[in-house]
Amino acid sequence: MNDLHQRLKKFAVEVYRLTLKFRKDPLLTDNVNQLIRSSASPGANYGEAQSASSTKDFHNKIRICLKEMRESNYWLHYFHEIFPELVETDPLIQESEELCKILSSIAFKTQNR
Question: Among 74, 26, 65, which residue's Cα sits nearest to residue 42?
Answer without folding.
Answer: 65
